[in-house]
Amino acid sequence: MKGQVIPGIELQVDRDQGVVMLTTERLIFTGPIHTREWNFDKLLQLSTTDDESDYFISVSNLKKTSGVRFSITTGREFNRFLGSATSAHEHGYDKVIDELKKMEKEAIGAEPKLELMPIGSDNS
């Protein structure tokens, strides 16, 4: 019997469940079956799905893209920490702290302000 292999789309498959540890140098996954390290010095690409639950990570020392998966809520929170960690790795802590302070000021400035109407004014 002869056959032909037709390559299809590669999908991320859950192979293990475990703990994800994030530092400013690397991302580490440890589970009962696999352990994986993605060093930010070797980082080629980081991407996520629209709902931020799946993360795809390409590093120069691994042939295939791999990644981690979270619940949507945890994934969105993880995305903020991952962005801060990679930025601190690339630009240093001071730049990240300055940017966070700038974002805080912008958020405070964008808060709605309660304006009281003068008594007896007709605003119809």
Brief synopsis:
It contains two helices and six strands; from the N terminus they run ββββββαα.
How would you explain this protein's 3D organization?
By secondary structure, this protein is α+β, with helices and mostly antiparallel strands. The chain has a single domain (19-106), classed as PH-domain like (Roll). Helix content is 30%, strand content 24%. It contains two helices and six strands; from the N terminus they run E-E-E-E-E-E-H-H. The strands form two sheets. Strands 1-2-3 form a three-stranded antiparallel beta sheet. Strands 4-5-6 form a three-stranded antiparallel beta sheet, with no helix packed on it. Strand 2 (26-30) and strand 3 (35-39) form a beta hairpin. Helix 1 (72-91) packs across helix 2. The model has no long low-confidence stretch (mean pLDDT 88).
- The radius of gyration computed from the alpha-carbon positions, rounded to a whole number of angstroms, is 22 Å
Question: What letter string, H or E per element, gives the SSE order?
Answer: EEEEEEHH
Distance between the termini: 83 Å
Largest sheet at a glance?
Answer: 3 strands, antiparallel
CATH third-tier fold name: PH-domain like
Task: Work out the helix count.
Answer: 2
The total of beta strands comes to 6
Structural class of the secondary structure composition? alpha+beta
- Given the C-alpha coordinates, what overall shape results? elongated
Strand order of the largest sheet: 1-2-3
Please estimate the helix content: 25-40%
Point out poorly predicted stretches: none
Which CATH C-level class is it?
Mainly Beta
Strand content: 15-25%
Q: In the residues, how many domains can be counted?
A: 1
Q: Mean pLDDT, rounded to whole units?
A: 88
Instruction: Tell me which CATH architecture applies here.
Output: Roll
CATH superfamily placement: Pleckstrin-homology domain (PH domain)/Phosphotyrosine-binding domain (PTB)
